[in-house]
Design brief:
33% strand; 11% helix; mainly beta; 9 strands; six-stranded antiparallel β-sheet
Length: 169
């Protein structure tokens, strides 16, 4: 009797925005209070260029956003990462993006950084528009990569974290 191969579900990925609650205290601050912590309140002057890390989409022209520093990789090693990010003041948390990309990645050149469980970077690559999923597949083919941090290639700011999801974790 011939053995039949059992097809396992493919590895998937999940991308989530940052929790709104992490930024709630800042939304009620005035300009002086924000300045004391090195943050700014701005009004988006275009429909692109103000990528929100809560909703994972760009702010619309005229929307109020905060520009503030965020620790995206809070590890006690040389790869600890902090940089400026935007959050929309009226942003609602988005549902996780499972096996699909959030709008904030559209048309952008991105840096994908693969980190091991202990927070050390083990692989990285740059991807252009339309190549993000190929990059995710390539990095997650390395079993040492526990998660991927996405950064905007030009400005270097944190865009999102990609986690393994599903049966092949």
């Amino acid at each position: 009797m011939a053995e039949t191969a059992v097809e396992l579900p493919a590895m998937t990925y999940r991308i989530m925005g940052l929790p709104r609650s992490s930024f709630a205290p800042y939304f009620s601050m005035d300009g002086q209070e924000l300045a004391r912590i090195g943050a700014l309140r701005l009004v988006a002057d275009a429909d692109r260029g103000f990528p929100c890390r809560i909703s994972l989409r760009d702010a619309d022209r005229g929307e109020s956003v905060l520009l503030l520093n965020f620790v995206s990789h809070p590890v006690d090693n040389p790869y600890r990462t902090t940089h400026a990010i935007f959050v929309r003041e009226l942003a609602e948390e988005c549902e996780p993006y499972v096996d699909c990309l959030p709008p904030v990645f559209d048309g952008r050149h991105l840096s994908l950084r693969g980190f091991a469980q202990g927070g050390m970077m083990v692989d990285a690559l740059l991807v252009g528009p339309g190549k993000v999923e190929d990059g995710i597949d390539r990095l997650f083919a390395n079993r040492d990569v526990a998660c991927i941090h996405v950064h905007n290639a030009a400005y270097g700011c944190f865009a999102a974290r990609i986690e393994r999801h599903g049966a092949d974790q």
